[in-house]
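Lab meeting, item 3. Inverse folding demo.
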């Protein structure tokens, strides 16, 4: 499927699944926004997870991965779907006492590994996975994500492959145009 068609279909799925809400939200950061993203709500539908996994697999195939790795928990479902589409093994790293660790799987030393996340904003979690694997002797071949919200400003050493590059404006409450319109503000996750 063509890139723009994939992006269009994905945006529809994000709205249908409630993963992309439009309205007036108070984010955990304290900022206000007209958009709220929770990819887990998309990935709760296996059919949508499969669609995103196949599309993302097409994006990262050219990196010639031998294994897919994800940061837990957010990256596990989509990482597994990408690995399935490429018929590759899948591993995940998890945070223990603040540090990213590979505690359930052997280190893929000598293997080309692509890191897969659901959403990249700062790229911190994906970066920690990539560096952990590199320190263990693996080759971090690249990174892929359903949504790239970094605006090209992530901390990753390379641009991530993504299905949707989206940057939504956020405002301090006192500067929020939606507050000025008198729209009630909602804390996402408190209903739906
Ligand atoms: Zn507001």
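The presenter then showed the designed sequence:
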């Amino acid at each position: 499927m063509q890139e723009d068609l994939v992006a269009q279909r994905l945006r529809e799925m994000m709205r249908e699944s409630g993963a992309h809400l439009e309205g007036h939200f108070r984010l955990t950061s304290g900022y206000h926004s007209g958009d709220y993203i929770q990819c887990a709500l998309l990935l709760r539908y296996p059919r949508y997870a499969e669609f995103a996994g196949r599309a993302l697999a097409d994006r990262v195939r050219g990196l010639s991965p031998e294994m897919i790795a994800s940061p837990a928990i957010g990256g596990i479902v989509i990482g597994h779907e990408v690995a399935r589409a490429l018929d590759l093994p899948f591993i995940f790293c998890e945070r223990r006492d603040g540090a990213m660790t590979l505690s359930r799987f052997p280190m893929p030393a000598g293997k080309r590994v692509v890191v897969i996340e659901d959403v990249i904003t700062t790229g911190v979690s994906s970066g920690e996975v990539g560096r952990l694997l590199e320190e263990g002797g693996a080759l971090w071949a690249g990174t892929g994500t359903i949504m790239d919200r970094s605006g090209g400003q992530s901390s990753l050493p390379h641009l991530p492959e993504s299905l949707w590059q989206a940057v939504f404006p956020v405002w301090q409450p006192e500067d929020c145009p939606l507050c000025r319109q008198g729209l009630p503000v909602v804390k996402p996750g408190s209903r739906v």
